[in-house]
């Protein structure tokens, strides 16, 4: 995690290139157009002129970038499937709001990743039969599918090799079988693991030489790192609160913190 954060911090200085105002835009705020080039270790960075900033080479994407995007799509898709299970199983308002936030962000990011791949002529991923899947199939209709559709066809996550943190079919079935506080705690435990898997994928991305530096992908990776790290902290706190409440209401020394037998 340390190496990922350091990489994001250094590269982030150069991402402001995308925010530079076009030449001749008199309405632009000069402060928004500043570009700082990092200096050697221990030395201050240097502010570049607009001409110097425009002349900087733009990093190209790598095979590792493509693999990251292709793997993160089914990873996000499973988060949608997990969130779809909340309705009818949880009575906790905070769990409901969490699921809504996850669903909105993951759908938007699936669309972003799909566009990124298609604009570069890359497949979203290779389906088992060997034919490519395109963005329309990945994103259409998800808002209309109920939980039974998600569980019945397995969606895209079931057709892709498991990425870090993803639930197995058996774990998805186990989650779907729960309700009330037991569901809430299992959902949080699994979603924390799922989010931590996304951070592992980011570590793998930035450990690959030259990867993660293409401007649009870097912005996306930075957002994933910040958003999912923050959500992990929130979910961990909520899990502790729900577990404490469940222990007060129905103490059971034979149950674990997620409601499952020890």
Question: What's the helix and strand layout?
Answer:
Elements: H1 2-12, E1 35-37, E2 46-48, H2 50-55, H3 63-84, H4 93-119, H5 135-139, H6 147-153, H7 169-176, H8 180-207, H9 215-249
Antiparallel strand pairs: 1-2
Helix pairs in contact: 3-4, 3-8, 8-9
Please write the string of helix (H) and strand (E) elements.
Answer: HEEHHHHHHHH
Low-pLDDT runs: 13-31, 129-156
User: How many strand units?
Assistant: 2
What's the gyration radius in Å? Answer: 21 Å
Provide the domain count. Answer: 2
CATH architecture classification of the largest domain:
Up-down Bundle
Which strand-content bin applies to the residues?
under 5%
- How many individual helices? 9
Average pLDDT over all residues: 78
- What is the first-to-last residue Cα distance? 30 Å
Shape: elongated
CATH level-3 fold name of the largest domain: Ferritin
Descriptive report:
By secondary structure, this protein is mainly α. The protein has two domains: 2-55, no CATH class; 63-249, Ferritin, CATH 1.20.1260.10. It has helices spanning 2-12, 50-55, 63-84, 93-119, 135-139, 147-153, 169-176, 180-207, 215-249; strands at residues 35-37, 46-48. The longest helix is centred in the last third of the chain and has 35 residues, at 215-249. It is elongated. The relative contact order is 0.15.
Keywords:
mainly alpha, Ferritin, 2 domains, two-stranded antiparallel sheet
Provide a concise account of the structure shown:
It contains 9 helices and 2 strands. The chain has 262 residues and is mostly helical.
């Amino acid at each position: 995690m340390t190496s990922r954060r350091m990489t994001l911090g250094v590269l982030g200085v150069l991402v402001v290139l995308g925010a530079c105002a076009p030449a001749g835009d008199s309405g632009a705020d000069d402060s928004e157009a500043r570009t700082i080039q990092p200096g050697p270790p221990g030395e201050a960075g240097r502010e570049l002129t607009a001409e110097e900033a425009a002349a900087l080479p733009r990093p190209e994407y790598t095979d590792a970038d493509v693999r990251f995007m292709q793997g993160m799509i089914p990873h996000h898709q499973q988060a949608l499937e997990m969130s779809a299970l909340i309705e009818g199983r949880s009575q906790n308002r905070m769990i409901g709001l969490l699921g809504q936030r996850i669903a909105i962000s993951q759908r938007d990011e699936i669309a972003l990743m799909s566009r990124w791949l298609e604009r570069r002529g890359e497949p979203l991923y290779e389906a088992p039969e060997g034919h490519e899947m395109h963005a329309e199939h990945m994103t259409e209709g998800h808002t209309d599918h109920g939980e039974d559709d998600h569980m019945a066809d397995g969606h895209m996550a079931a057709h892709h090799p498991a990425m870090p943190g993803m639930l197995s079919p058996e774990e998805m079935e186990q989650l779907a079988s729960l309700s009330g506080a037991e569901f809430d705690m299992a959902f949080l435990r699994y979603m924390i693991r799922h989010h931590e898997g996304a951070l592992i994928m980011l570590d793998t991305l930035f450990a690959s030489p030259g990867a993660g530096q293409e401007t649009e992908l870097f912005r996306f990776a930075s957002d994933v790192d910040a958003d999912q790290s923050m959500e992990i902290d929130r979910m961990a706190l909520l899990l502790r609160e729900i577990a404490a409440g469940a222990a007060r209401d129905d103490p059971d020394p034979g149950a674990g913190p997620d409601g499952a037998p020890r």
